[in-house]
Write a structure and sequence with these properties.
The complex is a heterodimer of chains A (about 350) and B (about 270).
Chain A lengths: L1 H5 L4 H7 L9 H6 L4 H17 L6 H26 L7 H19 L3 H26 L3 H24 L13 H8 L2 E4 L2 E4 H19 L1 H11 L1 H6 L4 H27 L10 H11 L11 H20 L6 H25 L4
Antiparallel strand pairs in A: 1-2
Helix pairs in contact in A: 4-15, 5-10, 5-11, 5-13, 5-14, 5-15, 6-7, 6-8, 6-13, 7-8, 7-13, 9-13, 10-11, 11-13, 14-15, 15-16
Chain B lengths: L2 H6 L9 E12 L2 E12 L3 E6 L5 H9 L6 E6 L2 E3 L4 H6 L2 E4 L11 H6 L16 H14 L16 H14 L4 E5 L7 H16 L3 E6 L2 H7 L2 E6 L2 E7 L5 H9 L2 H14 L1
Parallel strand pairs in B: 3-8, 3-9, 6-7, 7-8
Antiparallel strand pairs in B: 1-2, 1-4, 4-5, 9-10
Helix pairs in contact in B: 6-7
The chains are: A mainly alpha (about 350), B alpha/beta (about 270).
Chain lengths: ~350, ~270
Amino acid sequence: MSQSLKSPPPPSSGTAAAPRPKTAPSLMTRALARPEIGAFLAAVVIYIFFFAVAPAFRSPESFSTILYASSQVGIVAVGVGALMIGGEFDLSAGVASATAGLTCAMLCYQFNLNMWVGAILSLALALFIGWLNGYLVVRTGIPSFLVTLGTFFVLQGANLGVTKLVTGSVASKNVSDIQGFDSLKAIFASEFSIGSVTIKITVVWWIVFVALASWILTRTKIGNWIFAVGGNAASARAVGVPVNKVKIGLFMAVGFLAWFYGMHLLFSFNTIQAGQGVGQEFIYIIAAVVGGTLLTGGFGSALGTAIGAFIFGMTVQGIVYAGWDPNWFKAFLGVMLLLAVAVNLYVKKISSTRKA
Amino acid sequence: MTDTLSEHADPTLHKGEPLIEMTDVGKTYGAIRALSGINLSVGAGEVTCVLGDNGAGKSTLIKIMSGLHGHSEGTLKVDGKEVHFSSPRESLDHGIATVYQDLAVVGLMEVWRNFFLGSELTAGNWPLAPMKVKEMREIADTELKKMGITVKDINQPIGTLSGGQRQCVAIARAVYFGARVLILDEPTAALGVKQSGVVLKYTAAARDAGLGVVFITHNPHHAYLVGNHFIILKLGQRVLDKKRSEVSLEELTAEMAGGRELAELSHELEATQR
């Protein structure tokens, strides 16, 4: 017995010791092929920049604030990024958060419902909006940019109109006394401390959603399908990928995340402004594009979108810490977007040229 | 090169046995008649070539067989049973795989992901079950090597391969996943001479392994190199339907180039020159 145990040398040792074949790509080449590489380098540069110019930026407390700002964008952006990899846009993702929050708040306040019931009903509505967006896109063949532009305006108008009709003002009533509020607040809008630093729960959720999305995109067949649907829907369909289901599913995932952020808004401020969320949809798209997602679909990563959101959080807070006029922020955002698109185009060109 | 084919080809296939039979198949899109009265049979171990100019109805014919559009008249039989496809998945489940000219693969995705697209290996059946990435990479690499397609790196985007290699990967994938009938849509149209040769060799290998092949092309020379049976379509109608023994390349070429119409045209042109 013991003889047989020691006699054969492990077969892998020979191959492991052999030098790497020349044809294998170097670490550098593989890193350059990652969608998020440009965003990662930009994030490092921006971090060093603010670290140097703004002393207030350096404290751990500031870092926690930056993470909170990033998570507020990052949660929905991760869904929008995945949707864009799947080749579609969602311009209604910003206002859908307000719709979800308003629905929950007004239902519970008007009908004396437990907040949990309101949260679940508003989730159903958010998923329905996502489904409707997806269904209209795959059914009519109208570009998602136009379909969701339509839903964007419908929701924006309905948010204001219904809220005014129900409450007489442009915000939902304070719901903090309603049953179930505290338990939901613990889920969506609590915070905890590590040493002297307070961390918002949304940061944890953000990390969870990014990890989950990364898993789905790179390790599951659904992820494979998402890339295929965005990269070449016709050939994906030809090998049996359920293209329409994948697209509708992605829209519903964005609906879910928009609902999640809407719940965060509701349970941290006890009320929702009817006009909230307008403009956010572009921030989500920018986060995804800065993170290396191709506007035309088929390429990108969840981590990249997260880095895009982090750049957003860092800049929006960094400008404040540096004591500059915050109005400059939008200008900066525009420049970032243009740079990101240029880098992405370059990357696509490199990765699609013949090598073998 | 034929290793993959003979290994994975369905052993129940017998040469000459009809796999697809179409009787009087037609297709209308609203008031527009795209195809009518098509009789076509695809036998195991045979290459049926469908030739025709642009707009002749070739694409419609492919779409009916591959399940993208259902036919509106006539009968379509697969393995002797009448079917009416409403999705590509159904057609694939009957063992009919289509390799499209320019949409065979997703260019930005890695070679191994393309190879397994739509038929991923997963550990478990639940939707978020992890794919067996390592295994998939190894299988894709071995299968491609067997065919003589050397890829620098199985992880490189498939868009970096040449057009001919991409077609071959797509054909190999279809065979690996148990296709009994291969529909090749203009596989050589965008390729150079050498690349076309590779694809044609592979087509012949698929035929010899016992698969039924439908070879769609507008190049009679390529068709004649591999075909057993030739059908020429014009304006949605069949204008020629002959076995290899009944037709010569010259006849095929002449018919494809327009036949009588071409003769008339040359007559007219000569008249104007005088």
